[in-house]
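Q: My labmate handed me this sequence with no annotations at all. I'd like to see what the chain might look like in three dimensions before we decide whether it's worth expressing. Could you predict it?
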Amino acid sequence: MFGWIIVFFTGTAVYFLRRYPRPVLHTRLGFCSVFIAAYLGGMEMWLAMIMRVIFDLASLLPI
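A: Here is what I predict for the chain of 63 residues:
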């Protein structure tokens, strides 16, 4: 799912940065793609860690 989000943001960046010359476009597009990928990867890591703690605590409940 995160791959599609990265593709969407990359396409949006290309659309809004198309008036710049190619080297500027490639530099900014590369920065935007790396930043978005790192941000989403960090979010996914935190979410996985929080869900693991929740499931570990839930397994201790006497059901």
